[in-house]
Amino acid sequence: MMRSRESNKNPGRRLSAMLILAMAGPAIAIDIPIANHGFEDNTVAPGCFAVFLPNAWSVYDPNGIVDQNADAVGGLHPEGGPYFPNAPEGNHVGIVYLGGDIGGGEAGLSQVLGETLLPDQRYTLTVEIGDIASGMGPPPCDVFGFFDLDGFPGYRVQLLAGGVVIAEDDNSLAPLLSDGVFMQTTIEVVIDDDHPQLGQPLEIRLINLNTIDTPQHPGIEVDFDDVRLTRECAKDGDIDNDGSLDATDVALFVDVLVGNDTDAMHVARSDLDCSGSVNGLDVAIMTSRLLGS
Length: 293
Ligand SMILES: [Ca+2]
Ligand SMILES: [Ca+2]
Ligand SMILES: [Ca+2]
Ligand SMILES: [Ca+2]
Description:
Layout: H1 2-9, H2 11-23, E1 30-31, E2 49-51, E3 58-60, E4 71-76, E5 93-98, E6 107-116, E7 121-131, E8 155-161, E9 164-169, E10 181-191, E11 201-208, E12 221-233, H3 247-257, H4 264-270, H5 280-290
Antiparallel strand pairs: 1-12, 2-4, 3-6, 4-5, 5-12, 6-11, 7-10, 7-12, 8-9, 8-11
Helix pairs in contact: 2-5
The structure holds calcium ion (4 copies).
One calcium ion binds next to helix 5.
């Protein structure tokens, strides 16, 4: 009791404490479960690859080329082999090998997640993308001989909701990759409260673009690992949703705060930390938005 009376007498001190709270760090990111996110569910011998449908993933094959023979998805255990020094996560990686219908259109892996698209969230998708090196695996996988995997056929990573792409990386790392190297791509998107795909199931696609790198070395395989998706509360303080943050929003926010405005959208947009209520913590965030952070 003493404490609250004391803090009421010192609104300045209370506001600075709130500002410090707000500036202590970004909103807490929540992990969205992805089954078999690192392709560790299916075991492959060290240095070898194998053709199979990775657990929990589906084949994405709009051009009808994946026959699980010359065009195949599966897994690879890089350790001790010529293809990569190691897996970025765990022991295994997922593979999309398109050696039959070279140049015949994209194919890959997809997974529909258990979560749906939520409003006022920043989604961050990270995936390790691998450009596999040529070589021949150690026994017993040497029976398959030497694989010429020089070059890179291109990749695309997509986040979808209800079958509609909401964010993607279309091959941005290709100029930086080289044979035997994995690199991480990061894809971010902020979803507003009026996004048309709200409530639709999320989906991830990992695509081999199957483009011909050079005639000598078309590049026929893309590898994937450590697929992760997080979301965090993201609201911009634009209470009237007119695309700009100005005095009108401050006035609306204050009206909501003191209980004079109960308009559902205004209340939702004023709950800047997605806590379910509008209070001093939201004041601190509104202040930092107005200061441009
Ligand atoms: Ca892995
Ligand atoms: Ca390669
Ligand atoms: Ca506004
Ligand atoms: Ca709040």
